[in-house]
Amino acid sequence: MFSxxxxxxxxxxxVLSGFxxxxxVAAIVFVVWTFGKINERTTTKELLDKINxxxxxxxxxxxxxxxxNNSELIKAAIAIVESHGLSVSGPQNxxxxxxxxLADNLDRTREIxxxxxxxxxxxxxxxxxxxxxxxVHMKHGDFxxxxxxxxxxxxINPTFAGAYNARGMANRKMKDxxxxxxxxxxxxxLHNNFTATYNNRGVIYMEIRQIEAALTDFxxxxxxxxxxxxxxxxxxxxxxxxxxxxxxxxxxxxxxLNPQLPEAYVVRGIAKxxxxxxxxxxxxxEVAESLGYKRIDIEDRLIALRKG
Length: 308
What we know:
By secondary structure, this protein is mainly alpha-helical. It has helices at residues 2-83, 126-140, 143-156, 161-173, 177-190, 195-207, 211-224, 228-240, 244-257, 262-274, 278-290, 295-307. It is rod-shaped. 34% of the residues are buried.
């Protein structure tokens, strides 16, 4: 009897032991599975975060590329204009224009001993692009459209000195000297060491025969940034003042700084004509012609000189 009871107990103990072992194994398997799921979720979240981050970077890059493409369109437009023989960024000699107007300095703002801090204009900003399209209109002779673009640039950024300077040049082309002076004055109130604007305002003073005021502006421009255009402009002013020796001296400095500037040779030649040195004057005119200045334009200026 006791043997039967002992056998039954052994069976019960064996079954219980098996159950305990099975439960333990099951618990271990469950714990491992649970940790695996948690780790999987963490990994998935990290992956999603990386994807989102990558997407944001891609969107930002796309936006920047779009802006760069806009900039490239502006550059392409300028290239097309230049391919038709029009210069977007260089000095020009136009018929019946007696004064160098620094067309290649439309939007240059060089900081030289300037107490006012002028923030640079980002290349891809809307106002900068409007300035560039305005320049293209200027080269096509569409001054009204240029003024519109420059004005819109000013509306976006009322402290954009370069846009006022550019609009002043467009107004000068329209013979609106009063508006041009207002624009140049505003540009200089924003940036009082803007070399191009002093030169350009001096050109307006020459147009309205305020020669002393013009000479003051040319002097200021040369003090800030000596260059061949400034000396050439000053030579023209001395011609108007009938100080031909100074005119020859100033235009000679311009030639020394830039031997490729035809206007300097023409201005010096005109001063020599008025001094009676016709042979020396003709040599200057020949050099100007070799650099692209048209002889008929020289003759027109000499005729105007005789009439004056």
